[in-house]
Amino acid sequence: RVEELRVSERVIDLSNVTFGYTATPVVEDIDLTVDAGEHLAVVGPNGSGKSTLMKLMLGLLEPDRGTARLFGEPAHAFDDGSRLGYVAQHASASKEMPITVREVVKMGRFPHVGFGTLSTADWDIVDEALDTVGMSAFANRRITQLSGGQRQRAFIARALASEADLLVLDEPTVGVDAESVEAFYELLASLNDRGITVVLIEHDLGAVTDHARRVVCLNRRIYFDGPTAEFTASDALARAFGTAAVMGESS
Ligand code: ADP
């Protein structure tokens, strides 16, 4: 799959996008493109529209104005579930079914086999995905019995099993213990090295500046979009967050 990707493929394309749940826009005049192979972090204060932006990217919400495209198609009409892995916030397992890790990862094959039986080759892909995220030893553990970080890994494995080339994660390190965050980011970096496009919302600014190559700083509008080093040196954060003091609290 990675070899099939054209280097210049545009994965996400938001053009002049404005959206509000009411008459008041939550995100406004957003121009944002992501090409295949990028590793991008979206940062911003609470309520700045990050989750909304993610849902617009994925076509879960439709813009009031402007256009949102995903893999070149109108985002809301995009339906190739095998290309896209979305890891929503999973701080709590309460809403998850008491199924095992392997059963969760198996779901990644459904876009390929329907609800039919998995072949040996499909199961090999499932087990390889478990191995890649370091969860083989937990394959038969119930998803409800995992730590936050382990659960996120299981959902990433599900995306790998579907052979997704875009991984979108909404605050994946919420509920992940501090010692595991570093390893989690190393996993994301290794997936990105394999050619998977990674887009994540992150509240942990230290993690962002250490690991993401590109940062988008959002507070209704985009305050900064560029290489992480330039972001660190800029005043975008202070402008987007209002005061430098808030920035300290958020990191
Ligand atoms: P962030 O992810 O940066 O915390 P969100 O995109 O979740 O921001 O929210 C942006 C704004 O939109 C907030 O003011 C929030 O209260 C509002 N909002 C989010 N989801 C909904 C919804 N489903 N209905 C109405 N308002 C919403």
State Rg.
18 Å
Q: What small molecules accompany the polymer chains?
A: adenosine-5'-diphosphate
Shape: globular
| Low-confidence sequence ranges | 244-251
What CATH architecture of the domain at 1-80 and 203-251 do you see? 3-Layer(aba) Sandwich
Task: Tell me the span between the first and last alpha carbons.
Answer: 36 Å
As laid out across the biggest beta sheet, the strand order is: 6-7-8-3-9-10
CATH class of the domain at 1-80 and 203-251: Alpha Beta
- Please give the count of helices: 10
Strand content: 15-25%
Identify the CATH homologous superfamily of the domain at 1-80 and 203-251.
Answer: P-loop containing nucleotide triphosphate hydrolases
Mean pLDDT over all positions:
87
The structural class is alpha/beta
Instruction: State the total count of DSSP E strands.
Output: 10
Order of SSEs, N→C?
A: EEEHEEEHHHHEHEHEEHHH
CATH third-level topology of the domain at 1-80 and 203-251: Rossmann fold
InterPro entries: AAA+_ATPase, ABC_transporter-like_ATP-bd, ABC_transporter-like_CS, Metal_Ion_Import_ABC, P-loop_NTPase
Subunit structure: The complex is composed of two ATP-binding proteins (BtuD), two transmembrane proteins (BtuC) and a solute-binding protein (BtuF).
Family: Belongs to the ABC transporter superfamily.
Function: Required for corrinoid utilization. Probably part of the ABC transporter complex BtuCDF involved in cobalamin (vitamin B12) import. Probably responsible for energy coupling to the transport system.
